[in-house]
Amino acid sequence: MCGPLSGDQGDTLKAGAEDSLTAHGRPGRDRRMRGLRWRYTRLPTQVEDTLSGEEGNEEEEEEEAAPDPAAAPEDPMVPQLTEASQVLSASDIRQLSFHFPPRVTGHPWSLVFCTSRDGFSLQSLYRRMEGCSGPVLLVLRDQDGQIFGAFSSSAIQLSKGFYGTGETFLFSFSPQLKVFKWTGSNSFFVKGDLDSLMMGSGSGRFGLWLDGDLFHGGSSPCATFNNEVLARREQFCVQELEAWLLS
């Protein structure tokens, strides 16, 4: 027969009941967890890890295969030279090829004249050009190692006045290539005298000129091409000169 519980016994039973409810996830646990935010991290499965790794590899391959938007356009057909140039490197030739008119692209280059083989003589250059009608690339290196020259729309020849077309231009590697195209201001493209060769003119100044010995020359800004001085100084001495027929 059970009698009434004393105060201590009642408290003991009450505490035991609360502990029992807490152990089974009942109100005791609810009181302690009330107000907490749930956080959990979902762990990927082995299959997901494998797929994620494959996707990552595919993205890396796509990034490697993607073309650089800032890359230069496709190179034109690299011309074939009849012999190696003593002035221009392969990179110089490739850069210049971008600026030639379409009718020249892909044509072989024939070395018509060079000072190391034919001597320093403008008359010799004229003689070597006889019978040629195609465009010509005139390139030279001066005593400072500067490389520059001109593209002429037709062969270099003796003339009473200026000749050529707007395809003619001047250029200089200083050290990056700079090209000076026709401005339309005048038509003073090329003029061949007995004792001098001139390309581009205006106000008594020439974009490029060479003396009868092809040893001394000069370069000044001119209206025809609005060019800079092609060499490091306006007066220069030629160390090597080449004339290439581009047809």
Strand-helix topology:
Blueprint: H1 7-23, H2 27-33, H3 46-65, H4 90-97, E1 110-114, H5 115-118, H6 122-129, E2 136-142, E3 147-152, E4 169-173, E5 177-180, E6 190-192, E7 196-202, E8 205-211, E9 216-218, E10 235-245
Antiparallel strand pairs: 1-10, 2-3, 2-10, 3-4, 4-5, 6-7, 7-8, 8-9, 9-10
GO cellular component, one term: nucleus
Protein name: TBC/LysM-associated domain containing 2
Pfam families: TLD (PF07534)
Q: Percent helix among the residues? A: 25-40%
Largest sheet: 10 strands, antiparallel
Secondary-structure element order, N to C: HHHHEHHEEEEEEEEE
Rg from C-alpha positions? 41 Å
Low-confidence segments: 1-10, 12-38, 65-74
GO biological process, one term: response to oxidative stress
GO cellular component, one term: nucleus
Protein name: TBC/LysM-associated domain containing 2
Organism: Macaca nemestrina (Pig-tailed macaque)
